[in-house]
Amino acid sequence: MDKSTYVREMFATIAPKYDLANRVMTAGIDESWRRRAVRELGISSGGDILDLCCGTGDLSFASARSDRARRVVGVDFCEPMLKVARERNAEFSDRVSFVEGDVMRLPFEEARFDGATMGFSMRNVVDILATLREVRRVLKPGARFVNLDVSKPPNPVWRSLFYFHFYKVVPLLGGLLSGSKSAYAYLPNSLTSFPDADGLAARFTEAGYRDVRYVRLLGGIVAIHVGTVADR
Predict the structure, then answer these.
(1) CA Rg, the chain, in Å?
(2) Any idea what the CATH number is for the domain that residue 78 is in?
(3) Any domain includes 165
(4) Cα 138 to the center of its chain, rounded Å
(5) Is 27 within the bounds of a domain?
(6) Quick check: helix, strand or coil at residue 147?
(7) What is the pLDDT of residue 86?
């Protein structure tokens, strides 16, 4: 089974308990990380925002909540996750919509969106560089792509403590909460081959973004990367 198919089926399995597991395992801190990521879009008011690999909609809703004039399109290739997102969408149904689609082959025209976000999903894509280029394709010149994901802390002591939690505690707790031990064994291990903060920033630059930067949160266990689309 290829990675794309595996990831889709894995998320379909845990969709009903995904939000609960996230809240418990991060003690709710993940919501503040999403709010910070949304602020990095740098849009004063309004605009059309694309939320990639939106899952159950947490980052889409955070974006809509930050600006009552903003419109958000969430896209994900896992329909059971989208089903949960749509069920949660009563508050923002006039401004937030959810579309089934693959982040590497987005169903949108060039220069369609004023900004884009992705939360805790870049580790799961088949090709990071191709994904970054496809996201850039659908963004307007001057628009920002903001990526929020787990990262590798630079401090060796903190990194060791984080790795113990991420590789030992998360699979156990996530398996209990979601009912899928295999899913929460995969998710931590997806960090193993994922580039560190500097490495991911380099890929942003290689994919054609300018003014690339990143912010480490909580000692670097999470990083927000920002890249701006240059004029075409």
Answers:
(1) 17
(2) 3.40.50.150
(3) no
(4) 17
(5) yes
(6) strand
(7) 97
In b/e form, how buried is each residue of 168-191, taking b as 16+ CB within 10 angstroms?
eebbeebbebbebeebbeebbebb
Decide if 213 contacts 201 (C-beta within 8 A): yes
* Residue 95: alpha-carbon gap to chain centroid: 20
Residue in this structure with the two tokens 């809240």, named with its chain if needed: 23
Domain count, the chain: 1
d(CA 122, CA 37): 14
What does the block give as tokens for 95?
Answer: 């401004």
pLDDT of residue 180: 78
- Domain assignment present for residue 28? The answer is yes
DSSP 173-214: HHHHHHS-HHHHHHHHHTTTTS--HHHHHHHHHHTTEEEEEE
| DSSP 8-state class, residue 230 | P
Could you tell me which residues are beta bridge partners of residue 226?
146, 213
Domain range enclosing 18: 3-150+194-229
Mean pLDDT, 10 residues at a time, over the chain (232 residues)? 83 82 81 96 94 96 96 96 95 96 96 97 95 98 97 97 90 81 80 95 98 97 97 68
Contact 6, 125 (CB under 8 A): no
Q: How far apart are CA 6 and CA 127, in angstroms?
A: 15
186 belongs to a structural domain: no
The structure tokens listed for 138 are 């659908």
Q: What beta strand segments (E) does the chain contain?
A: 48-52, 71-76, 96-100, 113-119, 139-150, 209-217, 222-229
